[in-house]
Design brief:
This protein is mainly α and about 450 residues long. It has helices at about 5-20, 30-45, 50-75, 80-100, 110-125, 130-160, 165-180, 190-195, 200-230, 235-255, 260-280, 285-315, 325, 330-345, 350-365, 370-385, 390-395, 415-440. The radius of gyration is 21 Å and the shape is globular. The N and C termini lie far apart (about 45 Å).
Length: about 450
């Protein structure tokens, strides 16, 4: 029966895509897709610092709210030295400030500095938890990320040289460098370890804000290179990496028992969606930009609540957790909403931004096959995550439960309600914006 899930999902997406060009959304100046293209072009060049900064502010605020609960759980299972806790809050603020700079209308070299600032501050946050695992994960992260940073810098400098040959080499170097930092396959190997070992609030900011912001920086640089070369291969290479990331992310999600690693591979999948949308261009650009926000809200919520699970059970291994829905009803409910959104469950926000990417691809000449392949891969991701929801709610058998400690704080209900409301409201806001564009609003 599992096969009917992808079939139904693809049929539904195809029906929406076919209707997209037929709905009476046309204003005097054109259709909703044309309006979406205008918005995407507007976002491409001036600063979108305000919008992205608002996302970072919201996610960082929830990270701060959830951090005390994370440390209370760590005090039971894996206590932190007080000095490291103080450093944690300092570097969390630096990390959030660096993230805002990713959307500034700066030259590529200045944006590269902002990317490096996010890398260095997040590496320190990954390394802070006590134990060998976080140190090893942070070392792997900093090694690959700094190498990627050097390649990206070399690519930027070559592109700015103006020589056609240099621009071609520079585009390739920049693609590899920024793809490494954004976690695109095959340069993603640091990402699952870093997300699994980082404090849950840090994992939320890493996946929810940093990865998507870096992809936008990469796309800006590749767009410059493509314009100078008068060739399409830089963004087509980004399309290839995006599809490969979608394939690998979907394939690896179903094999994960560690909740945070499962979410990390979901990030690989969703970075693939953003990369594909950016490469399609045209109306799909709006879908890619919107997916930075819809994915960011849902993924950060899922990671933040994985911290509550870890605080209660002392583990995020789903084989050792029982009765999640009964023992932590607020946490479990919020986690179900977030993972449902990440799966692309309609009418939640990520479904609509993914639909815009696919619809935009179908509208671009020569991209229909890749858009259809994207829909098929997303259908696989839908099944891979939705299949896990009942098991996450019910958990393992009671005999497998290592024993939980403490009770769910009543104060947790408010941030869970707020996060879930934002995640669910995106499913209303995104189509409203899209339909409003078509009416000339």
């Amino acid at each position: 029966m599992v096969i009917w899930g992808p079939i139904a999902w693809v049929v539904g997406m195809g029906a929406l895509a076919s209707l997209g060009g037929r709905w009476p959304l046309a204003a005097a100046g054109g259709t909703a897709l044309a309006a979406a293209l205008d918005v995407a072009r507007a976002l491409a060049h001036p600063a979108w610092t305000a919008e992205y900064g608002a996302l970072v502010l919201v996610l960082a605020s929830f990270a701060l709210i959830m951090s005390p609960a994370y440390f209370r759980g760590a005090a039971i299972h894996h206590p932190w030295p007080p000095r490291r806790e103080r450093w944690y809050y300092l570097w969390l603020g630096v990390f959030a400030a660096a993230l805002v700079a990713l959307a500034a209308p700066w030259p590529l070299v200045d944006l590269w500095v902002a990317v490096e600032a996010t890398t260095l501050s997040s590496v320190l946050l990954v390394a802070l938890p006590p134990g060998a695992g976080p140190f090893e994960a942070s070392w792997k992260y900093v090694t690959l990320a700094m190498l990627g940073g050097l390649l990206a810098l070399g690519g930027i400098l070559l592109i700015q040289s103006g020589s056609r040959a240099d621009v071609g080499v520079g585009a390739l170097l920049m693609l590899v460098g920024f793809s490494t930092k954004a976690g695109l396959v095959p340069f993603h190997t640091w990402l699952p370890d870093a997300h699994a070992e980082a404090p849950a609030p840090v994992s939320g900011l890493l996946s929810g804000a940093e990865l998507g912001g870096i992809l936008i920086v990469a796309w800006r640089g590749l767009s410059v290179a493509q314009a100078l070369l008068h060739q399409h291969w830089p963004l087509m290479a980004l399309l290839g990496l995006g599809l490969l990331s979608l394939l690998a992310g979907v394939a690896l999600i179903s094999r994960q028992h560690n909740l945070k690693r499962l979410l990390a591979y979901s990030s690989v999948e969703h970075m693939g969606v953003i990369a594909v949308g950016l490469a399609f261009g045209g109306p799909a650009l709006l879908g890619a930009f919107l997916h930075v926000f819809t994915h960011g809200l849902a993924k950060s919520q899922a990671f933040y609540l994985s911290g509550s699970v870890q605080a209660h059970y002392g583990t995020v291994d789903t084989r050792q957790i029982s009765g999640l829905g009964q023992k932590l009803p607020w946490t479990a409910g919020g986690l179900m909403v977030a993972i449902g959104a990440l799966a692309g469950l309609p009418p939640l926000g990520p479904f609509w931004s993914e639909w815009l990417v696919i619809q935009g691809g179908l509208a671009e000449p020569g991209m229909a096959v890749w858009a259809a392949l994207t829909a098929l891969l997303l259908a696989g991701g839908f099944v891979a995550l939705m299949y896990r929801l009942p098991r996450l709610w019910q958990g393992a058998s009671a005999a497998a439960d290592p024993g939980s400690r403490g009770h769910e704080s009543k104060l947790l209900s408010l941030p869970v309600l707020l996060m879930s409301s934002l995640t669910m409201s995106a499913g209303v806001v995104v189509p409203w914006v899209f339909l409003g564009l078509g009416r000339g609003v």
